[in-house]
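> @MW can you paste both from yesterday?
MW: sure, first one:
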Amino acid sequence: MIRATCVYLFVGLYVLLLGPFGILWTILSGNSALMYHMARFCIRAAGWMFGIRVAIHGREKIAPGVTYVFLSNHQGNFDGPVLMHVIPRDWGALIKQEMMRIPVLSTVLRLAQFIPIERRNPKKAHLGIDRGAALLKRGKSYLAFPEGTRSRDGHLGEFKKGAFIMAIKAQAPVLPITIINSSSIQRPGEYRIRPGSIEVFIHDPIETTEMTLEDRQRLIHLTREAIASRLPEAHTVRCGAS
């Protein structure tokens, strides 16, 4: 409990004190690279303080110069930060609208071209997907958790189709990612954070060239199959897409 409180304070102060500097630099220079460097430093420092180790498999499958839609299962609060550490490039993400209510962080996310998705407003959600497709075409890679929310029991949930539509519209390859054991670091509803190891498996890319929106269910199936291939069998029983 004490360690968790100390690390939360460190992250909060880091964002509040250094975040405005990164924001100002990005606005003046038009380059968000410094913000990503600052975020990765904070994540690595917090991971070291928490005693969290990350084993990465298949990072070489991320080809330089290729724009991807990174799609991962979602087990816990640390998935996003872990992938910021794992993926060696500056990417945007499809995020919950609620994250844009957090002071300082919301400005950072906006400058980094993260896209809030209003799940209760289909029209605005479609506009967000279209914006993501346009940015993909301009070379900005994106991360999304197709389950839409964290799994509370480790099972792979149903996949939402938005990120797949975005990938097909941009004709960008999907890169499936499996995260294992992040849920044991901080269990659902708990404040306490436990030391431990997280494994990340990066799979072969799935090309969307010549796919149309009619192929989205096939793309969902292929992505789900890849992600599930590294999960314990008991955690892959749910299926479907919405």
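MW: second:
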Amino acid sequence: MKTLLKVSLILILSLILLFGCSKEKEAEIVESSMKQLNSPNQGDKIAVFDTDMGIFKIVLYDRIAPKAVENFITHANNNYYDGLSFHRVIEDFLIQSGDPTNTGSGGDSASMVPFENEYSEDLHNFKGAVGMAAFEKNQNKSQFYIIAGGDISEEMINNMKIAGYSQDIVDAYIEVGGRPTLDYNYTVFGQVYEGMDVVLEINKVKVGSDNRPEKEVLIKSVTIDTFFPE
């Protein structure tokens, strides 16, 4: 009887510990994901985009997506993106750039070798998210997209719940919009924190049947810097 009681007690304590760890992990994920929608922290790496239509700034998540961020920073420091256009614009969805051929199928990684996707429970395709645009899995090169919006349908909400998304993340998607269907399919490596109005203005330009702007919108420069609160 004593042995049975000991086994039962150990089992109960194990379940409590497991449940507690699970809740703690979920809390960490939620907290980290919510940081994506807040201002950067002092010392964070940022990128300043100067475009034909204005300036916007993104924070870079080098600890979560180190390969994508290193690739982006290297390209930016080498002026790779200067003069490139936003060759793909889909209203209420995204704007896309990073192709020096302006065809939508060009570009190379900084190392000339495509690199693999970096998925994380900490980053999502909320409105303003910056991610690697790749035609095939693990074939990331130079192209990137910025989520410009997207209402969250009931079907999306149900699919997120089925997939195990926390209610806080579901609520965040409902509040700010985005594209949860892209989560865990593309690498999110940054987030617009200033100048989202410029991104939305670019997203509203008139496009042709191929989603290419009728009048080019160019990136003048991308400057890498460090965030310091004003």
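> thanks! The chain has one domain: 28-226.
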